[in-house]
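Entry for the shared binder. Reason: the reviewer on the internal report wants the predicted structure included alongside the sequence.
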Amino acid sequence: MISVLFVDDHEMVRIGVTAYLSAQPDITVIAEADDGAAGVKLALELRPDIILMDLVMKEMDGIEATRNIMQSWPEAKIIIVTSFLDDEKVYPALEAGAASYMLKTSKASEIADAVRSTYHGQSVLEPEVTDKMMKKMRSHASKLPHEHLTNREMEILLLMTQGKTNQAIADELFIAVKTAKVHVSNILNKLEVQDRTQAVIYAFQHQLVK
């Protein structure tokens, strides 16, 4: 039997999905919670095979709850079941450690199949989620390295081409030297170069210096 914890603040949703899952010969819902904080507590106490997690809830949202569970129990398998498909929900939820992402518009049978697949180590994503991720990956891959720099990082890169040290950059931009060092490190990583000299060469090669 695949044990399931269902965390959702909509009672009618819990009742409907729980009834369907409990009727399956290989799935049992062992507990329910109506907010994220209670969900985290039950997850760590009961260690269910699968956790169904809503995103927008009182006390603690599903993203924070997922993150807290994964930090204490990295082996947990969490399926997001939500009405939201916007980027600020999808990507943070997956980054927090959710294994699968389903919509509440899915059929109960599809959620049951997602429970089985996730239990066996597979990741199940709604087609709309997959499409969004593929588009984001293609967009990211099509950009040149310097196009990933923030405005502040571009500003600092141009100061680097003038031979300014971290201290000089910090003084000119009225930021801490430590902050300047972090920006420089991020620039090197994004440009995929080893040191400041290579970063400066990159800037001139790509005509970033006016």
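Summary line for the report: The chain is about 55% helix and 10% strand.
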